[in-house]
Amino acid sequence: DRLKQGLTKAKQGITDRIDEVLKAYTKVDEELLEDLEEVLITADVGVNTTMDIIEKLEDVIRTKKITDPQDVREELKLIIEDILSKDDTKLDVSHSPTIILMVGVNGVGKTTTIGKLAHRYKSEGKKVLLAAGDTFRAAAIDQLEVWANRCNVDIIKHQEGADPGAVIFDAIKASKARGVDVLICDTAGRLHNKSNLMNELGKVFKIVDREYPEAKKEVLLVVDATTGQNAVSQAKSFKEVCDITGLALTKLDGTAKGGVILAVKSEVDVPVKLIGVGEKMEDLQDFDSKSFVDALFS
Ligand code: GDP
């Protein structure tokens, strides 16, 4: 299936290398654990999360008196699944109207993710509207329009340089008039400094709270898995300036270092709701820890 296919590189970078280590040993010792530690760190799991995993593994090896390296695989899988399943929450747009504010720095796959979501909800028979709230780049507006046309959904846009708040205001007005179920808003992706970002997003958030209290609000932060630990630090920065309700981790198909999802899960206290495993419309998936770990360890 697509998930398994999308995780091919991650499997090579994580699971295949774990298996190589386990095969190289006849008994479970300190050296084996050190080798596993290196695999995890190389796969962008991050130092803290890796230490945590190895500690848990040591504990379980001791309590279950595990001596066969092959038995370590299942324990490691369980520990990873345990980390990933914490706060497993799906993106829920069953409330109508729902407004989804997409935040994240440029290039992470924000527009693509908006397009994929629009396609998904439109296919489900929902009335979808897009708002081109990133007015700083003409290209961002154009690209969002390409997706709107592709998915056959309406878009509210102003000219480059316009006030993002005004775009969102108009989009809310249009949503009410047209009976929109899901309004998906792009926002500016420049992260010059925190106060600057806080200012820009703050204005948009205030308008949403004031003008659209009947809507369920989702704030999705999009981060790029191929940027490794940068994805973790971006998530931490955005969390400081706005209330993120979920993460979309894109481009997992493009990296052998898919371990970043573990770092994100354990170091950022926000549920991963979506994962991107390819460029096609159907490559945006709800994150489900069990299927994810099963695909990775298959
Ligand atoms: P934005 O600047 O954040 O809006 O980023 P875009 O949506 O324009 O995406 C940047 C690039 O990443 C584009 O070439 C997308 O096709 C690509 N992209 C986005 N999501 C994924 C994904 O899950 N997998 C892969 N392989 N590419 C993706």
Automatic annotation (TrEMBL):
Keywords: Cell membrane, Cytoplasm, GTP-binding, Hydrolase, Membrane, Nucleotide-binding, Receptor. It comes from the Bacteria. Residues 271-284 form the SRP54-type proteins GTP-binding domain. It is found in: Cell membrane; Cytoplasm. Its EC number is 3.6.5.4. GTP binds at residues 104-111, 186-190, 250-253. Involved in targeting and insertion of nascent membrane proteins into the cytoplasmic membrane. Acts as a receptor for the complex formed by the signal recognition particle (SRP) and the ribosome-nascent chain (RNC). Belongs to the GTP-binding SRP family. FtsY subfamily. Part of the signal recognition particle protein translocation system, which is composed of SRP and FtsY. This is Signal recognition particle receptor FtsY. It comes from Intestinibacter bartlettii.
